[in-house]
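Box S1 | Example of a co-folding query
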Amino acid sequence: MSEAMEDWTPSGVAGADLVDGKPVRATIGAIDVFLCRLGDRLFALDNRCNHMGGPLHRGVVKGGPQPTVTCPVHGSIFWLADGRLIRGPASRPQPAYEIRVNGGMIEVRSSPRPT
Ligand code: FES
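Box S1 (continued) | Returned holo structure for FE2/S2 (inorganic) cluster
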């Protein structure tokens, strides 16, 4: 993970502004965070692909029981729920964050890496 956010941290993005299936980038301190809504589910990952820094908010999001994002640069695929790597060329999971709406605003905090 590029930087820990042990406590809930405001993203500056209103929950109502997150359009279904249209991810956005939020800059929180030094971290670019990918935020995405799919129905009533919310997801947050590091926005810079761990392969070569591709902007995941510009990637393709697919829904279903295990929603994914495909990096727009070289096509790595990550699970939105926990950043698990589904397909390379990336070779490790994408850092994922817990996400909630508090007072109408999206907040994120660090979550454990998948094992
Ligand atoms: S930068 Fe994302 S797969 Fe290469």
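The chain has a mean pLDDT of 93. The domain at 9-110 is CATH 2.102.10.10 (Rieske Iron-sulfur Protein).
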